[in-house]
Amino acid sequence: MPSKSTLNYPIMLTTLLFFSFLLLILFSTIQFSSSLPSANDPMIKSGPDPFTNLLVAFRKWDAQVDCPRFKEKYHNWAGNGSGSFQMGGYSGGCGGEESRPKHVSVLVKGWTWVPDNMDSLYSCGCGLSCLWTKSSVLADSPDALLFETTTPPLQRRMGEPLRVYMDLEPGRRRSGREDIFVSYHAKDDVQSTYAGSFFHNNRNYYVSSQKNNDVLMYWSSSRCLVERNELAKKILGLVPTHSFGKCLNNVGGLDKGLTMYPPCVKDSSSSPKWWDHLHCVMSHYKFALAIENTMTESYVTEKLFYALDSGAVPIYFGAPNVMDFVPPHSIIDGSKFGSIEELASYVKALADDPVAYAEYHAWRRCGVVGNYGMTRATSLDTLPCRLCDAVSKRGGRNAKAL
């Protein structure tokens, strides 16, 4: 005769399996529920909500998301984490530098990227003063000579100015004659990004709160490179765009932006230049297409930063480590999409979603700049002090000849 425990075994096994099944269902439900997007997720939409007023979009984003949530999401954001910046400057303190020159003068000899209004006397860190000038009268005995369009002298003797060579083009070619090399990469002697305000001189900085809802994108290019034109043509064929430059112009002329947007006229008494109304015209569009001449690491040019400054969301094709140089969630990296069609679908959907679109501006409104602070800190704006610091560390004119 079977024992009582033997008779109860099937019942116990069935009960155990039943409760295990219930636990499995409960766990799966909890796990599935936790993976669902929040109702406040800016990408969750009840349907298209076309908008033209950027400030209205901001208010909707504030109501549904707001800065605390954005800050929490991106407080440790560091782009690609590829070490794209020099960590020099004055962060190491000023101790033990009594023997260094406390005043350095740099005479600019040949230039294309160096604007005239950089000429100044700068008060730098660690008690260093820096005279940056294009005048051989003001710097008759300079500590360094800066060359850009011409190459430095073949030789330098002790007591003569240090030779500085700057090349901001994608190739970053050293002259082979310089004591200090300036370019856009962290591996160069002194880094200079394209993000500084010196690249934006003589502009109409009016920024419109009204965004076009029929023509979504701005593009302007006057150097008609074959590969860039082909890429732009594909995008322009899928996303409604106004092209203002010489390449693929579809607005009827180079200065049509002034007719289309009268507030963008900077000075009605003088002939317009392509750059003086660029920011203003761009601000009327939800997106700005930025395609670099060359897809090279760390080569992130003014094309991208113009768009950020104008309040248009950049659609970017260029440096693979671009995320190191921009604020969190501020640009659309076109290379991350499987196809141009996929990119175009995303852009058009974003254009009809005021909350999701406003999130691309949250970095500015919430003060979450990420690596962008370093991008600006290593730009042309700070180059005089950083270069003078490098010259001072080498001893200026008293540096040993190589």
From TrEMBL:
<dbReference type="GO" id="GO:0032580">
    <property type="term" value="C:Golgi cisterna membrane"/>
</dbReference>
<comment type="similarity">
    <text>Belongs to the glycosyltransferase 10 family.</text>
</comment>
<protein>
    <recommendedName>
        <fullName>Fucosyltransferase</fullName>
        <ecNumber>2.4.1.-</ecNumber>
    </recommendedName>
</protein>
<keyword id="KW-0812">Transmembrane</keyword>
<keyword id="KW-0328">Glycosyltransferase</keyword>
<keyword id="KW-0472">Membrane</keyword>
<dbReference type="InterPro" id="IPR017177">
    <property type="entry name" value="Alpha-1_3/4-FUT_pln"/>
</dbReference>
<comment type="pathway">
    <text>Protein modification; protein glycosylation.</text>
</comment>
<feature type="signal peptide">
    <location>
        <begin position="1"/>
        <end position="35"/>
    </location>
</feature>
<keyword id="KW-0333">Golgi apparatus</keyword>
<dbReference type="InterPro" id="IPR038577">
    <property type="entry name" value="GT10-like_C_sf"/>
</dbReference>
<dbReference type="GO" id="GO:0046920">
    <property type="term" value="F:alpha-(1-&gt;3)-fucosyltransferase activity"/>
</dbReference>
<keyword id="KW-0808">Transferase</keyword>
<keyword id="KW-0732">Signal</keyword>
<feature type="domain" description="Fucosyltransferase C-terminal">
    <location>
        <begin position="210"/>
        <end position="394"/>
    </location>
</feature>
<dbReference type="Pfam" id="PF00852">
    <property type="entry name" value="Glyco_transf_10"/>
</dbReference>
<dbReference type="InterPro" id="IPR001503">
    <property type="entry name" value="Glyco_trans_10"/>
</dbReference>
<dbReference type="InterPro" id="IPR055270">
    <property type="entry name" value="Glyco_tran_10_C"/>
</dbReference>
